[in-house]
Every structure is written in C-alpha cells, then in structure tokens.
Amino acid sequence: MASAQSAYLEITLRIDAQDRAAAASVYTKYKQPFLSTITGANSKQLLVREDKVLWHTRVSSSRSRWQQVRKPISGLGVGPKAWALVNYPGALHSLPDQWRVWLTRNHLPPEGAWWLRKRVEDRVPIHLRTKVIDARVSGGQVALQLSDTLGTGNRELKVDHVISGSGYDIDLQRLPFLDQKLRNEVRCFMGSPSLDASFGSSVPELYFVGPSSAKSFGPLFRFVVGADYAARTVSARLASQLSAPAPSKASIAA
C-alpha cells in the first residue's frame, strides 16, 4: 500500500481493577467516532497484481449441526481440510515433497480479513492488475514505476511511504545472520531447509520453525496456529537429548 503521509498514535493506560468497567464504557463510547473521523494518511492507494481482491467471509455464529460437521471451524479457517491440518499437524511431513509444496502454495492464498473489507472498499483507491517494476528515491519521496499486467503501458507514482504486503519467498541463502559456511551445510529443497520430523536440519542441533519449515510440514506452519506443535516438537527433542545418558568411553572409542 502506498500513502502520501501517515501518522500513528498509541496510548497505553494502566487501569486499576475497580476502574476497568468505567474505562471500558469510555472505550466503547468513543472508539467508533474516533475511527470514523481520524484522517490518518492524506491519501492511500492499494496496488494489486491480480484482477480482484480476495476477502475472507465471516462465518455465522449460528450454524446448523450439518454445517458444523460439513465445515468445521479450526484455527486455520473453515472446512475439513483446514481442520485436518490443525488436528494432524505432522501428517504432511511424510508426503512426497512435490505434493506437500503444491498444497502449501495453493491452500489459503492471500486474502484480506473480512473485518477489514469495509475499511478498504470505497475508501481506498485500488489499482488492480498492477505490479511494481522499479522503485527509487526522488526528491525525498519514493518514485514507483508501475506496469499494467495487461501490457497497456507504464506510469509513475510518487509517495512518501510504501508498505510491501506481497509475502515472502523463503531462501536460506538470504539469511545473513547465519554464517555462510553454515548456510552451505544445510541441505535445502527449493530454497527452504529440508527438515526431519522434529524440525531438525541436516546440521546437528540446528532447527527451523515458522514459514521456513512450511515446505517440510505444510501450509499450517505459515501461520501462528502452527507454533504450538512446532514448539512442543522441538522442545521434546531437546528434552530427550538432555535426559539421555552420556556415552561411555568405550562407546565413544567405538
């Protein structure tokens, strides 16, 4: 998203327990008027490569028993596929790499949250089928060279701030906090580390979790909801190693 000028204000209050009910009523009373009148940036523009913006749909809180069975709700969304990924988080690790990568790339594509839709549509100019082909500093601003994906021509857009929401392509070789020699020792698949069932890499005692583990474990680990399984699995591995008896001199010599 590109904006002309932006400001952000955060107020943190410490409220005693006996005053929290009164504070909550003030918050409820003034929240919406504030959000409705604050101008924020002078102007905002949303650049989208696709020909439309995808939005999540809000799930009704009152659903029939059949709807609940047919489309169960989980931390990853609605439907049996999302439910299975959350409840069997390690299952995809045993699939062939190509199948797992296909599912990771195609399940839950980029979509906007349902509660953001009314804050964007008819309020923020949206430029569809647009991609950024170049960016440079010009007179204290950012000059973006934009191209229409239909090939109708290029144009320039000057803004004060640019927020990139295009996602990330995991590439281990682009992690500068890891020594180059160490990066070269990690066995990878399509730029991501190839991990065992405990998130361990080919380098002993080196683990990867989060998005960098998605190509080994599936789309669940692109999201926060996958952190619980990852943390428990890595912790269990580390705990088992700490509790294992030290090898004897004879076994070391062998």
Q: What is the total domain count?
A: 2
Biggest sheet statistics: 4 strands, mixed
Q: What structural class do the secondary elements suggest? A: alpha+beta
Number of helices: 9
End-to-end distance: 61 Å
Q: Which of globular, elongated, flat, extended, rod-shaped describes the shape?
A: globular
Share in β-strands: 15-25%
Query: Secondary-structure element order, as H and E?
Result: EHEHEEHHHEEEEEHEEHHH
Please tally the β strands and state the result: 11
Overall mean confidence score, pLDDT: 83
Which strand order does the major sheet show?
A: 5-2-1-9
Oligomer: single chain
Q: Give the low-confidence spans.
A: 4-9, 250-254
Fraction in helix: 25-40%
Radius of gyration: 24 Å
What features would you describe in this structure?
This protein is an alpha+beta fold and 254 residues long. The protein folds into two domains: 2-16 and 43-55 and 111-162, FAD/NAD(P)-binding domain (3-Layer(bba) Sandwich), CATH 3.50.50.60; 65-110 and 168-243, no CATH class. It is built from nine helices and eleven strands. The protein has helices at 20-37, 65-70, 80-87, 97-106, 117-120, 180-185, 214-217, 227-243, 249-253, and strands at residues 2-3, 44-47, 73-74, 77-78, 126-127, 130-138, 141-148, 154-159, 161-162, 188-189, 192-193. The protein has a four-stranded mixed sheet with strand order 5-2-1-9, with no helix packed on it. The protein is globular. The relative contact order is 0.13. Mean pLDDT is 83; it is low at 4-9 and 250-254.
